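BUG: 3D viewer hangs when loading the predicted structure for this chain

Environment: internal workstation, default settings.
Expected: structure renders.
Actual: progress bar stalls at 90%.

Input used:
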Amino acid sequence: MYAIHPRNDIVNPLGDPPPRRIQIVYDFDLDKDILSCSSPEFEMWIALDRLRDSSIVRVSDFTSSPPIALPSVNNSAFIPPHWTPTTTASSRRLAFVSRILSDFNYQWRHILRRPYRESTFRTLAIAVIRIASLDFTVVEDVTRWDFKSAWGSYVQSHELPAWEGCQESIFNIDNAIFILERDLEDAMKSATKYNTDRKVPKGTAEQQCEIQVYILLTVRHIMLFHMQADGTVSYTKPTPFLNGAEIPSTEAVSLLLQGLTFGRPANQTTKLHTLPLEIQDHILAYLSEGPIESARRGCLLELGSPYAWIRKSGWTRQSGEVRRHETHTHRSDSTPVESKIHFGKTFSGISYI
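Structure tokens produced before the viewer hung:
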């Protein structure tokens, strides 16, 4: 029996090596009334009327499609000199967030490496923002003997993200302002208009901020745009971000974290911050069963050493490298704690063990 489910986007999982490799994809587009046929070697299409009118259809009846062009940046629109932010990204957050974004890029590569629709863009964008701002939940599996009824990969090659996307194109996190657009030029226009139109109440932290920073995010690219109190405008160089093929660069992740740093209130120093890092690490280890939630809290509190993605030996079972975990697997007495990242109640597809 087959089940039909409405979908907001089309997924084309071509491009993976074995065992996930898919040889050919057929897409019935009822809006355009065409059948598309894709493989690593060709892209073709045929009108559905042709199939309705004939019982025999040959390859020669298909029309070749041009290669799919991914969105690019018009660099001539962002002429030098480019702004270099004076703030620095927290070394703790950079080490932690860079790895999670890299694994997110890998798990959802079948979507990120091809064109996607607005609804999918907003779903991906909110995931990036929640990861960067550490606004996610870590669900831990600590069972010792557990035979899973589910099987296969956490993220299937035909799957779309299931968490809710952001509804607004412009919103604040502390004093940092995100502008979500599919194109960086459109994002800059939106930021300029928003800055001109907005009325900031006097006496607020935002009104007293000498520099207003906008994080322009297209998912495929990222850029910081800022306006000083005197109206002076500058921006960073457009930087490639998530494309499903290449690991996101340290430069791109740093820009994202630097933009958030401008709007974040300074962390208050406590007596815990005066302790040696080794003792801070020991305290953080008691905050959760697995290491991922402890590392997240260390980033939020600016406590402990930058996370090295190494599992320490002890009562949490095995020591060794913390790895991305991609499939449903049975658990035994020696299986380390599994840490799954959720957006709200929805699994992100990212898990570590």
